[in-house]
Specification:
The protein is of the alpha/beta class. It folds into two domains: about 15-115 and about 220-320 and about 490-555, FAD/NAD(P)-binding domain (3-Layer(bba) Sandwich); about 150-205 and about 320-415 and about 425-485, Cholesterol Oxidase, domain 2. The protein has helices at about 30-40, 85, 105-110, 120-125, 135-145, 165-175, 210-215, 270-280, 290-295, 340-345, 350-355, 435-455, 470-475, 480-485, 540-555; strands at about 10-15, 20, 20-25, 45-50, 180, 190-195, 220-225, 230-235, 240-245, 255-260, 265-270, 325-330, 370-380, 385-390, 400-405, 415-420, 425-430, 460-465, 520-525. The strands form four sheets. A seven-stranded mixed beta sheet has the order 5-6-13-14-15-12-18. A hairpin with a 7-residue loop joins strand 14 and strand 15. Helix 1 runs parallel beside helix 15 (about 540-555) and helix 5 packs across helix 15. The N and C termini lie far apart (about 60 Å). Bound molecules: flavin-adenine dinucleotide.
Length: about 575
């Protein structure tokens, strides 16, 4: 009937009698593998996710008409990956001023699935003892056995619409670059190129949602609550006793306080670089200025832990993202495919072959990515800076390719995130090009690529214009998230040996991923990264979660530190 408002779904109140060995907040790249490994070790695990289900196997429902008779949702189909930019409602986090997925799977439900075995320097350059590339061998092996990734996602083994790949790699070949299968040679990221590599399997998104989470869900020790938002960690001094939760808006989730097993239980925050930092602030852990914002907010004034129990740590500092610099070329051979139209006005043959046997262009990630190519630029400060270039068939013309240059490992610029009185997170200091050598690497990389593409006949430059110097071009792009953002945010709860409670200390978690000043509160997700990596981050975050699980499981059952 018209004009009858539906009653809001009711949240179930939790029973206080049940306790959990581990409560994990957030089901993204960090949270899912942790939940699997901890429940595999026989511990009871409660995984809290504020968002609704995403992929079909978890009960997701968001889908275009052409998927109506299938179990798949828009999240399952690689060719619909960029729908997040067209239709973000109900999918993206509304409390973050950047793009982030707030559905089951977080970033690994909404991203393009790019999947890279980390370069050894990604660990060795900035991570502390115990987290060097040699320490991560087992974790990386376990991860890539589970999710090997593929350069050829269509189940017929073919790549579709590769004209753009051929055009650009003709220039790289002519300039002496080498083609390789990227994940077979993670340590070779200098003047090499390859096909884009994705976590996809069987022509579908796959990744942690289809592997780790499936295995966890088959264990009696594991419980998943979706549509359930963690407000804060409940703690007595340095000991977390549980998590206060509330149901997400317009959803039937859970509400109340969930408790960890008395004495031995642990809480792990895996809510993403902004989400975990926000939860720390709301739990009285962070810089004093941010804790005061929470204390003075309408929503938390009454529940905020008293000031004597605050733990002052540099949460929100050390914010990092790949510095993104977009260039654009055009070439008559390039063929554009309208992936956005594939949602509502698809090409019938493409949806038919995808539905029949997961073949064709829709098994590839939108918007037709590749080639991906790498070069290392030595800096005057003695630091090698890694550039990862990612091309896609998209731009201002039908024959355009946009190529994003990501400045990663070796970059030294850092920013800051803060919380507003409405308890939304905000990037207050953008982390882009604050260091002269970072900027020099970006300019030098661009200068070189212009030379590498020079042998390509009929290629025209759209951006930078041919009469613009590389320095002028880089200077013309503001160093703000609006134009530089790569959606690869990390670093807000940095791991390190220098305890952030002490003067000049910069770290929020120790090398067991445990928050300084707490005996049973951990952070395991993008937040703990001390520095940037070469390629897109999700596989490295899963590897970090594998390693962290091992370290956490090896800790003595009861470990008590003095209350702050
Ligand atoms: C549009 C886009 C495209 C990207 N493309 C790629 C790519 O192709 N390849 C790649 O490697 N990386 C890509 N990334 C980055 C990658 O997805 C992220 O770096 C990664 O997912 C971060 O992992 P995480 O575990 O730290 O957080 P997330 O994956 O963001 O997971 C955090 C989870 O916590 C939940 N949460 C937050 N707060 C709360 C709370 N209070 N209570 C309960 N739950 C909460 C969120 O809903 C979310 O599910 C992309 C990111 C975006 C946004």
């Amino acid at each position: 009937r018209a004009n009858v408002a539906l009653a809001p779904p009711v949240c179930s109140n939790v029973t206080t009698s049940q306790t959990w060995d581990y409560i994990i907040v957030g089901s993204g790249a960090g949270g899912i593998p942790l939940a699997d490994r901890l429940s595999e070790a026989g511990h009871t695990v409660l995984l809290l996710e504020k968002g609704p289900p995403s992929t079909g196997i978890w009960g997701g429902t968001l889908k275009p008409k052409w998927l109506e008779n299938s179990t798949l949702t828009r999240f399952d189909v690689p060719g619909l990956a960029n729908e997040i930019w067209h239709n973000p409602t109900g999918v993206v986090c509304t409390d973050v001023d950047q793009m982030a997925g707030c559905v089951l799977g977080g970033g690994v439900a909404v991203n393009s699935g790019l999947w890279w075995k980390p370069h050894p320097a990604d660990w060795d350059y900035s991570w502390p003892e115990g987290w060097k590339s040699s320490d991560l061998v087992d974790a990386t092996t376990r991860l890539f056995e589970r999710i090997p990734g593929t350069t050829h996602p269509s189940t017929d083994g073919k790549l579709y619409l590769q004209q753009g790949f051929e055009v650009l790699t003709s220039g790289l070949n002519a300039s002496g670059w080498e083609f390789l299968v990227p994940n077979d040679h993670p340590d070779r990221k200098n003047r090499t190129f390859g096909h884009s590599t994705h976590m996809f399997s069987n022509g579908e998104r796959s990744g942690p949602l289809a592997t780790y989470l499936v295995d966890a869900s088959e264990r009696k020790e594991f419980t998943l609550w979706m549509n359930t938002t963690a407000r804060r960690v409940i703690r007595e001094g340095g000991h977390a006793t549980g998590v206060e939760i509330e149901c997400s808006k317009n959803a039937a989730g859970h509400a109340g306080v969930v408790s960890v097993t008395p004495g031995t239980g642990r809480v792990i925050l895996s809510a993403g670089a902004f989400g975990s930092a926000k939860l720390l602030f709301r739990s009285g852990i962070g810089p004093k200025d941010q804790l005061n914002v929470v204390k003075n907010s309408t929503s938390d004034a009454e529940t905020m832990i008293s000031e004597e129990s605050w733990i002052e740590l540099p949460v929100g500092y050390n914010l990092i993202d790949h510095v993104g610099t977009d260039i654009e070329i055009a070439h008559p051979d390039v063929v554009f495919y309208d992936f956005y139209a594939a949602y509502s006005k698809p090409i019938l043959n493409d949806t038919e072959i995808y539905l029949r046997n997961r073949t064709g262009i829709l098994a590839q990630a939108a918007p037709n990515l590749g080639p991906i190519f790498w070069e290392i630029i030595p800096g005057e400060d003695g630091i090698d800076r890694h550039l990862h270039w990612q091309a896609r068939v998209e731009g201002s013309k039908n024959t355009s390719m946009t190529i994003t240059q990501y400045l990663g490992t070796g970059s030294t610029s850092r920013g800051r995130m803060v919380i507003t009185p409405q308890l939304n997170t905000r990037v207050s200091v953008p982390p882009y090009l604050r260091d002269a050598n970072d900027k020099a690497a970006v300019i030098e990389g661009l200068e070189r690529v212009r030379k590498y593409f020079a042998p390509i006949s009929n290629l025209t430059w759209v951006r930078p214009a041919s009469n613009q110097t590389s320095t002028q071009f880089v200077d013309s792009i503001p160093a703000t998230p609006a134009v530089r953002c790569s959606n690869h945010w990390v670093g807000t709860a940095k791991m390190g040996l220098d305890d952030g409670r002490v003067a000049n200390g910069t770290s929020v978690v120790d090398t067991n991923a445990k928050v300084y000043g707490m005996d049973n509160l951990f952070v395991v997700d993008a937040s703990i990264f001390p520095g940037m990596m070469t390629g897109n981050p999700s596989a490295m975050i899963v590897a970090a979660a594998e390693h962290a699980a091992k370290k956490i499981l090896a800790l003595p059952a009861v470990e008590t530190v003095a209350a702050n």
